[in-house]
Amino acid sequence: MSRKKRFNTKYSPEFKLRENRLSYSETARKYGLVKNSMGGAMETLHRWERIYLEEGAAGFMTERRGRKSTGRPRKQPLDKSVEEDLIAENQRLKERIQYLEAENEYIKKLSALVYAEEQKSGKKRK
Q: Quick one: which of 56, 67, 88, 102 has the fewest CB in 10 Å?
């Protein structure tokens, strides 16, 4: 006895919208819906109808197959004013870092010059 193969057919959102009000069995027969891994054609049609009643036609545009993401939620975009403030703060901090790095280099060079001068004159550093 051979078993029928089950295919996970993906139906378009337009296909899922039932224009004429046929019964579930009439709709399944008319469009040739087959049983799937989630259940029979009637369950599929019932699920589509529930999605349509709850979310409207836009509900068919979202992908519902597979597991739901349990990972880190996506970041919400920042307000324009907050984003501009962060950019300005970032620029101010970069300028501050440049200033401190230049100051550090100056101190190193000055220290090296003082040390070389002390070595010439024979004085010991404290």
A: 67
**What pTM was estimated for this model as a whole?**
0.38
How far is Cα 116 from Cα 112, in angstroms, rounded to an integer? 6
Query: 126 vs 60, 79, 106, 119, 123, CA distance in Å?
Result: 80, 56, 21, 13, 9
CA distance 115 to 125: 8
Of residues 62, 52, 69, 67, the one with CA closest to residue 10: 62
User: Within 10 Å of residue 45's Cβ, how many Cβ atoms?
Assistant: 20
Residue in this structure with the two tokens 């069995």, named with its chain if needed: 25
Q: How many CB atoms lie within 10 A of CB 27?
A: 19
pLDDT-derived band at 1 (thresholds 50, 70, 90) equals very low
